[in-house]
Amino acid sequence: MTPDDALLPTFSRIGESTTARYTEIPEGSMLPETAYRIVSDEMMLDGNARLNLATFVGTWMDEHADRLYSEAFDKNMIDKDEYPATAAIEEYCWRILADLWHAPDHRDAIGTSTIGSSEACMLGGLALKRRWQHARRAAGQSTEKPNLIMSSAVQVCWEKFCNYFDVEMRLIPTSDEHPLMDGTGLEDVVDENTIGVVALMGVTYTGAYEPVTAIAAKLDAIQAKTGLDIPMHVDGASGAMVAPFLQPELEWDFRVERVQSINTSGHKYGLVYPGVGWVVWRNVAALPDDLVFRVSYLGGEMPTFALNFSRPGAQVLLQYYRFLRLGRNGYREIQQTTQDVARYLSGAIGRMDAYELLTDGSDIPVFAWRLKPGHTDKWTLYHLSERLRIRGWLVPAYPLSGDQSDQTVMRIVSRNGLSHDLAEDLLRDIRIETAFLDSLASPMPHPGIKTTFHH
Question: Sites of the modification N6-(pyridoxal phosphate)lysine (predicted)?
Fold first, then answer.
C-alpha cells in the first residue's frame, strides 16, 4: 500500500473494487478506511435492530452509556486482580438484585454476572444438581439419573443444560387448559432424583408469568405426602427486571421460600447492550462451595463462579450505570411506558376481525396473537410475517409448544426505544397487509417465511 493509494476515490481502491467476500486472510494490507467501509457496507444487509420486534435484547442506550462503553470495552471481567474496581462493581450489581428480589438477608446472598441469562440458567441448574448430589451422597444413595422439571415452553438453554450436564429433562406440556405450568401434574414427575423445578417469569412464547406461588404450594403438598423437599429456580430472564417495578405485590422471588436462585438478563429488560446476565442465590448456603473459585483482589478475596472465562467487563459497568442513572423510579417509568405501548398494540390487534389474543402484555411487555379459527384458508401468519418484513419489521410467527404445537402465533416484544409513534406505524402496516391478504381470491402459492429463531 503506497501513500498515493489514499488519494484514490473510495470505491476504486483495492478491496472496494474487488470482492469483499473474504474467506481467507488477504496477503496485503489495506487502508483502515477501506477495511471499515467493507465491513460497514456488509453490515447494511442486516435488519434494522430497532425494528426487530422478535428480540428481547436491548437495542438502545443513551449517549452517556455509549461513552462509558467506549472507555471500558478493553476490560476483561475475569481479571479481577487487574481490574479490582470493575470486580467490585460487579458485586454491587448482584447485591442490588438480591435486595430487589427480597433475599432474606442480601448480605448473605451470593451471585455473579454472566454473558447472558442462558449462562446464568446453567449456573443455577449446576448448583441444583450439585446440592442434590451432596445430599444423596450424605445419605449413602446413588447420584445417577438426576432429573429437572420444567414447562415445555422453556427457552432452549434449559435443553442445552440438561444435554450438556447429563440431567434428564422432564417437561410438563402446555395445553389449552393449562397454557402455563401451574403445578398440575407435578406429582406425576417428581421423584427422589429430582434436582429442582424451573419456573418461568415470562414465557418467551407469550410473555406470561408462570404462577410461582402455586407451583411452590404444590411442591409443599408433595413434600407433606412423600417427604421430598424439591427446590425451585426462577428463570426471570425478562420478568425479573419487570415484576419488581410493575407488579411489586406479586410474590415470585425469594419471598417464596422454595426459590433458591433467580437469573435475569441485563441486556433484556435490564436495559443494557448485549451481553450481560445475572444469577443470584438466596444465601451462600444455596451455592455449593465446591463450585466456587476464589481470586484475590484489593488485598482480599472474591468468589467467582462462571462457565466462561474471559468476557467483557464493559456491560457490567453499563448495568451499574443503569441502576444509578434510573433508580427504582426510572426503571418503573421505562417499564411502564414500554408496557403501555405493548397494551396499545395488543388492544388494537385484538380488535381486528382476523385475530385473537393469547396474551395482552400485562405481565412482561410482550404479547402474542393468532388467527381466529375459520377466518381464512388463503393465508397464514407466516405470510403476514413475510409481508411485514418487506416493510422493515421483524415480527416472528412460530408454533407453540407441548400439546399446542399445532397452533401458530405471532409475537411482539415491546422494548425501550419502541415509541408510541413507531407503534402507530407498525399498526398501520399490519392493517394494510392484513387487508391485502384478506383480499386474496385464492390461496397464497407458497407457505411464507418460516421462523428462523429458536426459543
Answer: 268
* pLDDT tens by residue, 53-105: 888 998 889 999 999 999 988 887 777 777 788 889 999 999 999 999 999 99
- Name the one residue in this structure whose C-alpha cell is 417469569: 201
Cell reading at 322? 443503569
Q: What's the first-to-final CA gap in the chain, in angstroms?
A: 47
Q: Is the dihedral of CA 344, 350, 354, 357 positive or negative?
A: positive
Residue 448 lies in a domain: no
For residue 65, what are the CA distances in angstroms to 60, 61, 89, 320? 10, 6, 16, 10
Range of the domain at 389: 338-438
Nearest to 199 by CA among 216, 184, 175, 187: 216
Q: Residue 372 in contact with residue 365, Cβ under 8 Å?
A: no
* Measured distance CA(164)–CA(121) in Å, rounded: 13
> Which pLDDT band holds residue 299 (cuts at 50, 70, 90)?
low
* Residue 1 pLDDT exceeds 90: no
Handedness of CA 149, 150, 151, 156 (dihedral sign): negative
pLDDT value for 2? 57
Q: Which residues are CB-neighbours of 358 under 8 A, at least 6 positions away?
A: 179, 206, 367, 368, 369, 370, 409
Q: How many helices (H) and strands (E) does the chain have?
A: 10, 13
Q: Tell me how many domains the chain contains.
A: 3
Q: Cell numbers at residue 275, please?
A: 451481553
pTM, to two decimals? 0.91
Of 323, 357, 390, the domain-final residue = 323
**Boundary residue ending a domain (264, 290, 323):** 323
C-alpha cell, 442: 385464492
Same domain assignment for residues 346 and 310: no
Burial class of residue 32 in the structure, from the number of CB atoms within 10 Å of its CB (0-12 exposed, 13-18 middle, 19+ buried):
exposed
Question: 184, 132 in Cβ contact below 8 A?
Answer: no
Residue type, 314: A
- Write the CA distances from 375 to 196, 371, 438, integer angstroms: 43, 7, 9
What's the confidence (pLDDT) of residue 445?
87
